[in-house]
UniProtKB/TrEMBL annotation:
Any one GO BP annotation for this protein: DNA-templated transcription
Keyword Nucleotidyltransferase assigned: no
Disordered: region residues: 451-491, 526-549
PANTHER family: ALANINE--GLYOXYLATE AMINOTRANSFERASE 2-LIKE, PTHR45688
Annotated keywords: Nucleus, Pyridoxal phosphate
Highest taxon above the source species: Eukaryota
Origin organism lineage: Eukaryota, Fungi, Dikarya, Ascomycota, Pezizomycotina
Pfam families recorded: Aminotran_3, Fungal_trans
PROSITE patterns assigned: AA_TRANSFER_CLASS_3
Biased composition (Polar residues): 526-548
Protein name in UniProt: Xylanolytic transcriptional activator regulatory domain-containing protein
Length: 1033
C-alpha cells in the first residue's frame, strides 16, 4: 500500500517527453477558454490501458476512464489498428453517403437491443444525440414539452441543455419553452419516506407527476432519463422506477427517451442498463462508451417512429453524421465487448468494487453512502453521517491526496450533489489493478485529516460471525438457506440437537433482533457432528412449545388500529404473559404482524423430539463413514449401507417434524424434494403442498426487505421462498398437479448474488452457481405463466390462447438472450471450460419449457404445430446426446427425469400420428440413437436420470419399432455411424463397450428381459407396467 506521494520516474506510456509542466499550464491558462471550472493542475502526456501519464513520468491509475468514455481502456491495440486503417482509406464522407462500417454498426447495435429499437443514426456527442432524440419526439408526437429529472445531465446543445437540471442554467436567458422537471430519485437524501424509514420513490414520483400535470399546457412530448444519474451523484434508479416512468408516459401519450451515455455497452454489468428493468424505451441514446473516447454517439428508435418522422420531414443534418471512421471504432468496441465477455467482467468486478467501498464505509465516518451498479460507483463524502451534511472541502482534500498517490477519481463538487467520487474504471481492468486503486483510496482516507476513522466498525457487530466461524459452518453446496447468527467453535465431538424454539421473542419498535427460528446448519464442522447418543443436550424447557404465524392483511390493520387506540388512551398494561402479537413492520399501508400460537395441536404429547429415533439409527448406520458423510464424498470405497433405507428414515423423521413444524421444516423439505431418484411422486407432491401452506403461515411470501429483522434473516427468507416456489412450479410441470402458488400471492423479490452468497466464501464457482440459481428463478417465473394454460379446464377462444403463447415465446426468447443466462447456456454443452454446476439442467429446463409454448392452432395449422413440437423434442434429445461425463456429474434437478421422458414420448407420438415416411424414419433414428446414449449414461456414468427414462420409455420404443431386424439395428447404433446407410445418423459413444447393451431380452421386438420398472418404480405409483399403458394408444 502506498504511503507517500508517488515517485516520479520516466515512463514508456508517455507520448510527449521533456514537457515543462508549469510553463505549459501557464500557457494554457492564457490561451484556452475555460468551460466548466479550472483546469486540472496536471499536463497529461500519455494514456495507455488503465493508466494515464503526467509530465515528468508520473503514472496514474485512471478510475474514471477519461471522461467516463474509455470503456475498454486507453490505446486498445485493436482500436488503434481500426483508427489507423480508416484514417488512411475511409475517414469522412458526404453526410448522405453510406459506408460498410455504418451499416454494419447499425446491424450489430440493433441486434443487441430489444425489439422496438430497430433503426439507428450515428452522431458525435451525447448532447448531439439527445438533441436529435428530443427533436424526433417532438415531431412524432406533435407536442413540445420535455420532462427531465432534477439531477440530470444530457448535454450542452439547446434542447439537451434545457432538459439538464444538474447545473449551468443561470445567465443565459430563457431556455427552450416547455422544459419541466421531476424530483430526482435520491434514496440517500430524499424526504419521501415510508413509515419504516425506507425510501418511498413511488410517492415521490407520483407527487412529481402531479406537479407536472399542473404546470403543463397539455403538450407533453417526452421524458428523458438516465438509468444512473452519474453527474447528479451516481444515483441508480430504484427497482421498478423505469417501468413506472414508462407507465406515466404511456398514460399521457408521451415517449420515453433513455440516455445511456455512460451506462451503455456493458458498463453496468449488463449490455445496456435498460435490461435491468426489462423496459424498452421509445428512443435510446448512446455516446461515451460506444466510441471508447472517440466522438461517437447514437440514436436508436423503432421502425414506426423513424418512418413517421421521415414522412414528416425530420431533419438533423450535421457534418459528421454517420461518419465511417468513428462508426468503425464503435463496431470494433461492440465486437470486443461481446467477444471477450466484458459485460460479465464488469458485473463481477463491479461487485468487488462496491463491496470493497462498502467495507471502507464501515471504517471511515466521512463516507456517507456507497451506491452504483457494475463498474460505475459513487462514494458520497459527508461531514456528519447523522445530518448528512456535505463536505466538499474534505472531498477536495481526498481527491488531491489520491492524485498524489497515483489515482485519478473524479470528485464532483457542484452544490447539486455535494462531494461525490464518481468511480468508473475501464471494464478491462484486472483484479490486481482494481486492488491497487482501492488500496490508494484507502490510504488517502487513512492519511487525510477529517475522515473520521471508526475503530469500532472493524469489530464484529451484534449478530455477525467472525470470518473463521463462517468458514467453519459453510456447506460445500450453494445454500438455499443459510442459518443466521450461528457461532460454532471447534470443540470435542459431541452430539447437538436441533432446537425447537421457533417462536419469536418480543420485539419493540426499535429492536431488530432476530425473531425467526434458530436453524442449525445441517452440515456442521466435522468435529461437531453427532457420533453417539450419550452426550445429548436437554431441550430448553417449554421453549419449543410455541410457534408463530403471520396475521392476514385485514386483521393486521385491525390489530394495529386497536393497539394505537389503546396506546393513545393509556390503556396498555404490562402483562406477565408473552405478547400475543409481534409487530414486524408498522407500515400503515402494509402492516406485518405475527401471532403467537401453540406449536403442536392441543392434547398431542410427544415423548421424543420429532425425528429423534430415526436420527439415532442413522448415527449407528453412518458412524463408520462419518468423515465421508461430512465431506459429501461417494461411499463406494466402504461397505455401503442400504441408502434407500437411510433415505426412508430421513423421510419418516420429516413427517414427524410436520407435527410441530417451523422454519427448519421448510429447509428439510427442500432438501428432501431435491433428492434423486424420485421414489414417491405422491409423497413429494403432498410435501410440496404442505410446505407451501407452512410458508404462507410463516409469511415467507411477503417481501421482508423493510422489516425490522436482521439482514441475515431477510436473506434466508428470500432464499427459502424461492426454493419453495421452484419446487411448486417444476413439480407441477412434471407431475401433472396444478400449482399451489399463483403470482398474485407473493411479493418476494428475485434473489441477488449478495443474498445467495455466504460472506467470506465469494469464490468463482459459488458465484457462478448462484447465477445459475437466479436464472432458474427467472425461468420459473415464466413457467408460472405457462402452467395456468396447461391446467385451465375452461373453454376459451383459440385466438386468446395464441396471444398468450406468443407472449410467452417472446419471454423465453428474451430470457435466453439475457445475461448471464446466455453465457450459462452456451457453457452447458461446451468442452474445455470449467463447469458451472447446474447449467446443463438449466438448459434442459428451458428447452422443455419451450415445448409447452407451441401453439395448438386450428385444424388447418395442426400439422405445423406438430412439426414445431417435434422439433422442440428433437432439440432436447440432440442437446442431451451432446453431453459428456463431466456434464452428467453436475447438479441436476429431479424434474429433469420428466423432461427427458417427455421429449421421448413426444417423438414417439409424432411417429405414431404421421404417415410421412421421412418423419417416421427421422423419429426412429433419433429415438434409437437416444436409447443408446441413455444406456451409455446409465452404465458408464451411473446417471440415475437415464435409468428412469429407460424404465419408462425403453419398452414402448422397442414395441413400436419391433421387428426381426431391430436388434442388429440397435447394435449398429452403438458400434458405428454407418454413414453410408441412408437415413441412419445414429452415433458411436466413445469408451463404451457394445456388450453392455444386452439386446437378448428382445424376442421378435417384444421386451422379455428384466427392467428397472420390475424392481423399483422410480417415477409413479401405478401397479401395471408402463408398456401396458402405452398399448392403450
Amino acid at each position: 500500500m502506498p504511503s507517500q506521494t508517488q515517485e516520479i520516474i520516466p515512463s514508456e506510456g508517455a507520448m510527449y517527453h521533456d514537457v515543462d509542466e508549469p510553463a505549459m499550464l501557464k500557457s494554457g491558462s492564457n490561451t484556452l477558454i475555460r468551460f466548466g471550472g479550472n483546469f486540472s493542475p496536471l499536463i497529461i502526456v500519455g494514456a495507455q490501458g488503465v493508466y494515464i501519464y503526467a509530465a515528468g513520468g508520473r503514472k496514474i491509475l485512471d478510475f474514471t476512464s477519461g471522461q467516463m468514455s474509455c470503456l475498454i481502456g486507453h490505446g486498445h491495440p485493436e482500436i488503434v489498428e481500426t483508427i489507423t486503417a480508416h484514417a488512411a482509406k475511409l475517414d469522412h464522407l458526404f453526410s448522405g453517403m453510406l459506408s460498410p462500417p455504418v451499416v454494419q454498426l447499425a446491424e450489430k447495435l440493433t441486434g443487441l437491443l430489444p425489439e422496438g429499437l430497430d433503426r439507428a443514426c450515428f452522431l458525435s456527442t451525447g448532447g448531439e444525440s439527445n438533441e436529435a432524440a428530443i427533436k424526433m419526439a417532438k415531431l412524432y408526437t406533435g407536442k413540445y414539452e420535455i420532462v427531465g429529472l432534477g439531477a440530470s445531465w444530457h448535454g450542452m446543445t439547446s434542447a439537451a441543455t434545457a432538459a439538464t437540471y444538474h447545473s449551468g442554467r443561470r445567465g443565459y436567458g430563457p431556455f427552450v419553452p416547455g422544459s419541466l422537471v421531476l424530483p430526482s430519485p435520491n434514496a440517500y437524501r430524499s424526504i419521501f419516506r415510508k413509515a419504516d424509514g425506507s425510501y418511498d420513490w413511488e410517492t415521490e414520483l407520483n407527487y412529481g407527476w402531479g406537479l407536472i400535470d399542473q404546470a403543463s399546457n397539455g403538450s407533453l412530448a417526452a421524458v428523458i432519463i438516465e438509468p444512473i444519474l452519474s453527474s447528479g451523484g451516481m444515483h441508480v434508479l430504484p427497482p421498478g422506477y423505469l417501468g413506472a416512468m414508462k407507465t406515466h408516459c404511456e398514460k399521457r401519450g408521451m415517449l420515453l427517451i433513455v440516455d445511456e451515455a455512460q451506462t451503455g455497452v456493458g458498463r453496468c454489468g449488463s449490455m445496456f442498463a435498460i435490461e435491468h428493468e426489462g423496459v424498452t424505451p421509445d428512443i435510446l441514446t448512446l455516446s461515451k462508451t460506444l466510441g471508447n473516447g472517440l466522438p461517437l454517439s447514437a440514436v436508436v428508435t423503432s421502425k414506426e417512429i423513424e418512418e413517421t418522422c421521415f414522412e414528416r420531414g425530420y431533419l438533423f443534418y450535421t457534418t459528421h453524421v454517420n461518419d465511417p471512421l468513428p462508426a468503425a471504432v464503435g463496431l470494433k468496441v461492440l465486437e470486443i465487448v461481446v467477444r471477450d465477455g466484458l459485460v460479465e467482467r464488469s458485473r463481477v468486478a463491479g461487485l468487488k468494487l462496491k463491496s470493497s467501498l462498502e467495507r471502507l464505509q464501515t471504517k471511515y465516518g466521512c463516507i456517507g453512502d456507497v451506491r452504483g451498479r457494475g463498474l460505475m460507483c459513487g462514494v458520497e463524502v459527508v461531514g456528519d453521517r447523522a445530518t448528512k451534511a456535505p463536505s466538499v472541502e474534505l472531498g477536495d482534500a481526498l481527491a488531491k491526496k489520491m492524485t498524489e498517490l497515483g489515482l485519478s477519481a473524479n470528485l464532483a463538487t457542484m452544490k447539486s450533489f455535494g462531494g461525490v467520487f464518481r468511480i468508473a474504471p475501464p471494464i478491462t481492468i484486472t483484479d490486481k489493478e482494481l486492488d491497487a486503486g482501492l488500496a490508494i483510496f484507502e490510504e488517502a482516507l487513512r492519511t487525510t485529516p477529517g475522515t473520521m476513522p471508526l475503530a469500532a466498525c472493524t469489530q464484529p457487530q451484534r449478530g455477525e460471525r467472525s470470518s473463521n466461524t463462517r468458514e467453519m459452518t459453510e456447506s460445500r453446496n450453494l445454500d438455499i438457506a443459510n442459518p443466521p447468527n450461528q457461532n460454532y467453535t471447534n470443540q470435542p465431538a459431541k452430539r447437538r440437537h436441533l432446537a425447537l424454539d421457533d417462536e419469536p421473542p418480543e420485539i419493540s419498535s426499535n429492536d431488530t433482533q432476530s425473531f425467526l427460528p434458530r436453524l442449525l446448519n445441517p452440515i456442521q464442522n466435522r468435529n461437531e457432528l453427532p457420533l453417539t447418543p450419550q452426550n445429548s443436550a436437554t431441550p430448553r424447557g417449554e421453549s419449543g412449545s410455541k410457534s408463530s404465524m403471520i396475521v392476514g392483511p385485514v386483521m393486521a390493520e385491525d390489530v394495529q388500529m386497536i393497539e394505537k387506540y389503546m396506546s393513545s388512551h393509556g390503556r396498555v398494561q404490562q402483562s406477565p404473559r408473552d405478547n400475543l402479537y409481534n409487530t414486524i413492520s408498522d407500515n400503515p399501508k402494509d402492516p406485518v404482524l405475527y401471532l403467537t400460537v401453540p406449536r403442536r395441536r392441543q392434547g398431542l404429547s410427544l415423548k421424543r423430539r420429532p425425528g429423534e429415533k430415526q436420527r439415532e439409527i442413522l448415527e449407528q448406520i453412518l458412524g463408520p463413514l462419518i468423515d465421508d458423510v461430512v465431506a459429501l464424498q461417494a461411499l463406494q470405497n466402504h461397505p455401503c449401507p442400504d441408502l434407500l433405507y437411510v433415505w426412508n428414515l430421513a423421510v419418516a423423521a420429516l413427517q414427524e417434524e410436520f407435527q410441530a413444524p417451523g422454519m427448519s421444516t421448510i429447509n428439510a423439505v427442500l432438501l428432501d424434494l431435491m433428492g434423486r431418484p424420485t421414489t414417491s411422486i405422491t409423497g413429494n407432491t403432498i410435501n410440496s403442498g404442505r410446505t407451501v401452506g407452512l410458508s404462507h403461515i410463516l409469511g415467507l411470501n411477503r417481501n421482508p426487505e423493510t422489516w425490522k429483522i436482521s439482514d441475515a434473516e431477510k436473506k434466508m427468507r428470500i432464499r427459502l421462498w424461492w426454493g419453495v416456489l421452484i419446487h411448486d412450479r417444476w413439480s407441477s410441470f412434471a407431475h401433472g398437479v396444478p400449482t399451489y402458488i399463483t403470482k398474485n400471492q407473493y411479493q418476494v423479490p428475485l434473489p441477488t448474488i449478495e443474498i445467495l452468497m455466504t460472506e467470506g466464501m465469494d469464490i468463482t464457482s459459488r458465484r457462478e452457481a448462484a447465477e445459475c440459481f437466479i436464472a432458474l428463478c427467472t425461468l420459473t417465473e415464466i413457467l408460472g405463466d405457462v402452467l395456468p394454460l396447461v391446467y385451465d379446464r375452461r373453454e376459451k377462444l383459440a385466438t386468446e390462447t395464441s396471444k398468450v403463447l406468443r407472449r410467452l415465446q417472446l419471454d423465453l426468447d428474451n430470457w435466453e438472450d439475457s445475461e448471464p443466462v446466455l453465457s450459462l447456456l452456451r457453457r452447458a454443452n461446451e468442452d474445455g471450460r470449467e463447469i458451472v454446476s447446474g447449467s446443463s439442467s438449466l438448459k434442459l429446463g428451458f428447452l422443455s419449457n419451450a415445448t409447452h409454448t407451441t401453439e395448438p392452432g386450428l385444424s388447418e395449422t395442426k400439422r405445423y404445430s406438430q412439426a414445431m413440437l417435434r422439433e422442440s423434442a428433437r432439440e432436447i434429445i440432440i442437446f442431451l446426446c451432446s453431453l459428456k461425463s463431466h456434464h452428467l456429474s453436475e447438479f441436476w434437478t429431479p424434474y429433469s427425469a420428466y423432461h427427458i421422458s417427455s421429449a421421448t414420448i413426444i417423438l414417439l407420438r409424432c411417429a405414431i400420428e404421421t404417415n410421412d415416411p421421412l418423419i417416421i424414419s427421422s423419429c426412429k433414428s433419433s429415438l434409437l440413437d437416444f436409447m443408446a446414449w441413455l444406456q451409455c449414461a446409465k452404465v458408464k456414468d451411473k446417471w440415475d436420470l437415464a435409468d428412469i427414462c429407460l424404465a419408462q420409455c425403453e419398452d414402448p420404443i422397442m414395441q413400436i419399432y419391433g421387428n426381426k431386424e431391430l436388434p442388429s439395428q440397435a447394435r449398429e447404433s452403438v458400434l458405428s455411424y454407418e454413414m453410408n446407410q441412408p437415413g441412419n445418423n445414429v452415433r458411436v459413444f466413445e469408451g463404451v463397450d457394445a456388450t453392455m447393451f444386452n439386446f437378448n431380452g428382445f424376442n421378435g421386438g417384444v421386451h422379455t428381459g428384466p427392467s428397472v420398472m420390475d424392481a423399483q418404480n422410480y417415477v409413479n405409483g401405478f401397479e401395471y407396467p408402463w408398456a401396458d399403458m402405452w398399448d392403450l394408444f
